[in-house]
Amino acid sequence: MQVAYLFSGQGAERTGMGAEFYQTDPQFRSAFDQASRLLDLDLPQICFNADERLQTTEYAQPALVALSWALYQTSQAQLPPASALLGLSLGEYSALLAGGQLSLVDGLALVKARGRLMAQVCQAAPGEMVVVLKADAAQIATACELGQQSGFVAVANYNSAQQTVLGGTPAGIAAAVAYLRTQGVKRILPLAVSGAFHTPLMQPAATAFVPYLTQSRFSAGTLPVWSNTTKLPFTTATLATTLAQQMVQPTYFAACVTQLALQGVDTFIEFGPAPILARLVKQTIPTAKVYQVADPQTLAATVAELGVTNGSKR
């Protein structure tokens, strides 16, 4: 068994995420409170209650990374060791924390700045994103070409063979969606975001983010973390550049999963409030074994199903 740990991206956040662990697990509570202090945010209030801030980019990003990091800290010792780490978009920061490429102080500071800067762009020039299911590459390409005649639209996420995400201006997205409907593509779902992430429309945020990246300290880390942008593991020398590019270029999650499978990874464990990445892995590698850690119940089920004791195979 070779294992990769997965870390959720924005959109996985849920009201109440982490609440049960916080109430019952001292290690989780300590980690989550530490993140709250470093972020200068009341994360229990934001995450555990019906707080509208969790639905905004500015607060969802640091909250989700803090949650994923606390889940990892709490459960990693009970799970089999990973040979690689992979996050989707925002989840790359959680993976870099887990891998040791970023310290908690620098990592959370970057995520807080990233969320704020992206939210500012969303407010100044609102964009949209839609998930397109079961459309082929030619249909997606034509949809983007036609969308460009009305506004801007581009592929933002290559999530799996069955799922592609488009981002763009409202007019561009509307034109692309209209074309896909004529081609019989039935499942096109809007995402609850106010910006076109991973497209050139995020360039103002990426430019403003560069000074924060320049001031951060990056380490070699203890485990390889795969980049959605380059489809290769991050390197210390190019980490800052790649994280800036990530904001304006499409993500290639499916390609990363395929590369991990070719290297022998057959088991994927997702840290996050919903098994979103686990489902994408199954769509890409149907034979893969996928698990999730979101609360005490899913952790216990994962440990039991994997048959591990103190992180080692029984």
From TrEMBL:
Question: Which Pfam families does the record cross-reference, listed alphabetically?
Answer: Acyl_transf_1 (PF00698)
Please name the source species: Loigolactobacillus zhaoyuanensis
InterPro entries xrefs:
Ac_transferase_dom_sf (IPR001227), Acyl_transferase_dom (IPR014043), Acyl_Trfase/lysoPLipase (IPR016035), Mal-CoA-ACP_Trans/PKS_FabD (IPR050858), Malonyl_CoA-ACP_transAc (IPR024925), Malonyl_transacylase_ACP-bd (IPR016036)
> Which top-level enzyme class is recorded in the Swiss-Prot or TrEMBL entry?
transferase
Instruction: Print the keywords alphabetically.
Output: Acyltransferase, Transferase
Query: What is this enzyme's catalytic activity, as reactions?
Result: holo-[ACP] + malonyl-CoA = malonyl-[ACP] + CoA
Q: Which residues form the Malonyl-CoA:ACP transacylase (MAT) domain?
A: 6-306
Q: Which family does it belong to?
A: Belongs to the fabD family.
EC numbers on record:
2.3.1.39
Q: What is the superkingdom listed in this entry's lineage?
A: Bacteria
Name the SMART domains on file: PKS_AT
Q: Name one GO molecular function term.
A: [acyl-carrier-protein] S-malonyltransferase activity
**What protein name applies here?**
Malonyl CoA-acyl carrier protein transacylase
